Amino acid sequence: MGNPADKWVLTPIRAVGRVPLSVAGELGRMGVFLVQTLGYTFTPPLKFFRVLEQIRFIGFGSVLVIVLTGAFSGMVLGFQGYYTLSRVGSTAFIGPMVALSLLRELGPVLAALMVTGRAGSAVTARMGIMRITEQIDELEILGLSPYRYLVVPVLLAALVSVPLLTAIFNVVGIFGGYLIGGKLLGVNAGTYFGAMKDYVDAKDVLVGIYKSIAFGGIIAWVCCYKGFFAGFGAEGVSKATTQAVVLSSVLILICDYVLTSIFF
Amino acid sequence: MITIENLQKSFGAAEVLKGASLEIRDKEIVALIGPSGDGKSVFLKHVAGLLQPDSGRIVFNGKDLCGLRRAELVELRGRFGFLFQNGALFDSMTVYDNVAFPLREKTRLKEKEVRERVLGELQQVGLEGAEDKYPAQLSGGMAKRAALARALVRPPEIMLFDEPTTGLDPIIVHSIHALIAATHKRLGFSGIIVSHEIPGVFAIVQRVALMHEGVIRFVGTPKEVFETGDSIVRDFIRGSLPPEPFRYPAQDPKQPSVEEHSELGRAAACGAPVAGMAQAPALHDPVASPTGVTEAARKGGGG
Questions:
Q1: How many domains does chain A have?
Q2: Which pLDDT tens digit goes with each residue over B10-37?
Q3: Of residues B36, B34, B32, B26, the one with CA closest to residue B3
Q4: Under an 8 A CB cutoff, do B101 and A135 touch?
Q5: Which CATH number fits domain B2-239+290-302: 3.40.190.80, 3.40.50.300, 3.40.50.720, 3.40.228.10?
Q6: In chain A, which residue's Cα lies nearest the Cα of B93?
């Protein structure tokens, strides 16, 4: 180690190699966590009431924020769509434009990002606090699997809740678009909804649902993982929560791109 | 009952356990003492199966815990109790639900029987009337008692205590020790208690083990701790004992100021003669009474 060649050649190479090694290690741990979670998901007993509890927290608890963001997203789309389409004299297509934007992309993505911010961060923080206060260890001592008791209910609840919340987001967004395009800017209701019926396919709705299920899985996976292995103290939990929200959001956008390129 | 052989564990570059070995006999409690950061809690978590050693064996009733499949380990854990340093009570549940949790999850008892067992256990630890409180509403001593009730509601064969009295005032420390001694007498478990309460904890244990730099350096009775020739053990024990108490004459008109108090205290702690200060008899003489057990503690400990 005293060799100067080591210092000037090997040290920088080690430093460069440390980053991909750390990323690969983290991905490996996340993979193992996912496999273990899926293992407990498909083996009884299922903590049914814990799942319901989590659906109430992740799903019902997010309805208000989803309605608000859905309404304003639809209203913005109504404004922007109307003024863009009016340049080419096609304001009659504002309905399909708002609906397709929401059903295919904005609905699933924005709803998932809102759930990440509201419920995903809370899941990470709660699990992180349970980790640092040894409540997760206590579950193990009592002979209960923390995966079965804590992680699986969140995963199932997210897989159920996020598509439903996305549907609410889409419906509210479409009516928000109508509020602006129809009521404020004068597009006829028949035109708005009629054209939508002509241009929106079942595939658009289905792909949106597939995406939202995938996003629900990502939120549960990343947020539970980060909380489950949170570092020490308040700083560890704070760092885990930030990482969970950032990583979930990035993965949602990457997954959205991949699914869009596969399905369309 | 339980034999720990040559346990080794590293976290990254930090080698925490360097071949720690200890034997816990049937129905005995061993106090695990030693400097902070020398691996006592890590050792305890290995015994509970919460951590896996890099090498070494933990043999419980002839079975090596390190080689067990997960299902076997879960089954075996049902025979262990663990009192964590901060209690580890589930903060979203009331005291009642915390204590009832192991019964509801791991037994098929009816809710009426669960209620009887929970209320009985809470009474044993002196927490009647606190069933509806949440952990955040409890004092440190109450939280430890609630956690103890939860650990004991399904009587364990092995009970592990991780610094059960850290951060508590001396009176509560005494009452927790008495409670542990009473439950030990009632349930007859074997156990390890990690503690810095020296010599207080010696009153409730049968043997003492000292961990030093990742190995068990000394094992013996509380009396033998004070008689050993091992300088590291002697230094640790001497450093852990409370300082010699001192008192000022009650009628002394020249009562020292607050500043003088601290100066006098420092001087007394160094063994220097202090003018105007009465030589009070030692409240606690560990050599004369190696276990440091007072009559009151014995009575409380006995039940």
A1: 1
A2: 998 889 999 999 999 999 999 999 998 8
A3: B26
A4: no
A5: 3.40.50.300
A6: A135
